[in-house]
Amino acid sequence: MSLSCASVTTPLTTVALVGIVAAIAISYFQRWMRTRKPYAFIPGPDPSSVAGYLLDLHNPDGLSWHYNMPEKYGHVARLKGGLFMTDALYITDPAALNSILIKQQNWFPESTEFAGLFGVIHCGDGVASVKGREHKKQRKHMDALFTASRVSKLTPLFYKVTRQLQSELTAAVAGKPPGQVVEMLNYLTRAALEIVATAGIGHTFNSFDDSSKTFEEFHGAITTVLPLGGRLFLFLPFLESWRKMKPVWLRRTFASMAAFFWPTVAKFRAAIYVMRSVYLMLYKARRKVLEEGGPAALVETPAGGKDIMSSMIQANWDAEEVDKMTDDVVLANMSSIVHGGQETTSSSLARFLTIVAEDSDLQQKLRAELQEAKAASKKAPGEDLDYVEIERLPLLDAVVREMLRVYSPVTFVWRQTAKDVVVPLTYPIRSATTGEEIKELLIEQGTAVYIGMGAANCSTAIWGPDAAEFKPERWLNRAQLEAKFPGAYSGMMTFLSGAKVCPGRIFAILEMKLILSVLLLAFSFDPISEPIDWQMGITIEPRVHGREKEGIQVPVRVTILSA
Ligand code: HEM
């Protein structure tokens, strides 16, 4: 009996169950379809594939896609999610950015994907991956190390590396006909790594020595780890939960399995391991010095205790118990400082050389300004300009500002809304559905918000019709320039602003000005015949037009100037 009963009810039950599940699925799908397009009224670009905007956002040839965004669609644009993702927003509006980065910053944290990625790369909860109060606490430590007064004390360390750069470059072109083609990005990358290593962690990679294995290994690791991480984009949403997973053996087992099946994971892990070993070795050595000899003993360390790592360890040592950072946090922050100070500065320096190589008049004027400053300060031959003297060079200052405005090394950053937030707009949105003018915008919880820093820096509505042109003279009358954005540097977005503003900006600007001042007095620069194309990357990447397969490079013609 029970058998026959079952044979009657099972198909019915199954049909009913399937019907219920289907109805629930359809209702969820409809709701998802409705909620994933909350910004349908905002104009924005059509994605180039059904996969939505992501491929366009990261397209290596897509710099113009970013820079045209405010010109074509306005200062808030809708990024269509395509078949699988929800819509996102691309924002360059000053009032909205002020709200997102400053006034309501707590509701716009770093995306979980990036926080997870940086947490894994830096092996811990450093500034790049923590939020809220913990971020504030760590930034208090970090910002104290990057004040103008602290950074100015690093000037001799910067000069030491820059003089090495000068002599390496001299050796490369000496005795050869003028205008030797030199791949300058290679030299500048070595200089930037050596500077951030010396001044940042009190260490040398012997970066100018071609046979330096430590340089090769570390440089290989630091320059590949982010692009490798980018290739793991399928894993990005899970990295944050993976790195918090307990027990640790389970986390490690997952990582080993992934590395076994996917070579990119294995390379990514190996790169992290190389960097971590260096930081750990340095950190332990520095702690030992401190424990055995106290703060005074740090003077005996390679950078005389003046490097940022020594200062950070010492400050942490002296801090109240509640403000102390754990060893892992200090290490993660060392890693983020070295990471942050690498490609951004070297690619900006290389860009600068291409600009002055193309514009011999500007090059002459900059050189004349430096010669005059040296004469006025009555420096002995070979004696260097100090921090204040370098800061007081108006043309060099204007050129560096304009270069960082027009050619922001970081094109955009990614935030995710933590709750529904209303932001005001400087430039109202014209609704694509009703034609109505919208003066403030509700950004829904969970929305991916992309801050278009490069595009904001070049918006014609904000900077005028010549916004895209490289015109250093606009900074010579700075008093007349009103602040365009909440940006921490000259009202531009290059270093961002608010809690996540780049802590290394004063360091970066001094480094760039100092290297340029030395190079311009020692060499003249001319362009090669092919143009350099700059492409989207984690930071923007230069390749010679028509020779893209040769990889990232910036060849420039170099001639030694007679003394
Ligand atoms: C031209 C040079 C540079 C540019 C354009 C630049 C730009 C930026 C930007 C846009 C951010 C924010 C990223 C985000 O919120 O997702 C950032 C963060 C950071 N930068 Fe820089 N940076 C430069 C040089 C440096 C240097 C030289 C250092 C260190 C010596 C440094 C250290 C850092 C650190 C540690 C962070 C993370 C801050 C945090 O998450 O709170 N940067 N940088």
UniProtKB/TrEMBL annotation:
Pathway assigned to this chain's UniProt record: Secondary metabolite biosynthesis; terpenoid biosynthesis
InterPro entries with a match to the protein in the record: Cyt_P450 (IPR001128), Cyt_P450_E_grp-IV (IPR002403), Cyt_P450_sf (IPR036396), Cytochrome_P450_monoxygenase (IPR050121)
Needed cofactors: heme
Subcellular location per the Swiss-Prot or TrEMBL entry: Membrane
Residues bound to heme: 502
Membrane is among the record's keywords: yes
GO cellular component, one term: membrane
Main localization of the protein described in the UniProt heading: membrane
One Pfam family here: p450
UniProt signal peptide: none
Keyword annotations: Heme, Iron, Membrane, Metal-binding, Monooxygenase, Oxidoreductase, Transmembrane, Transmembrane helix
Domain of life of the source: Eukaryota
GO MF terms held by the record: heme binding; iron ion binding; monooxygenase activity; oxidoreductase activity, acting on paired donors, with incorporation or reduction of molecular oxygen
Segments crossing the lipid bilayer: 12-29, 259-282
Keyword DNA-binding: no
Family the entry assigns: Belongs to the cytochrome P450 family.
PANTHER family (alphabetical): CYTOCHROME P450, CYTOCHROME P450 12A4, MITOCHONDRIAL-RELATED
Protein name per Swiss-Prot or TrEMBL: Cytochrome P450
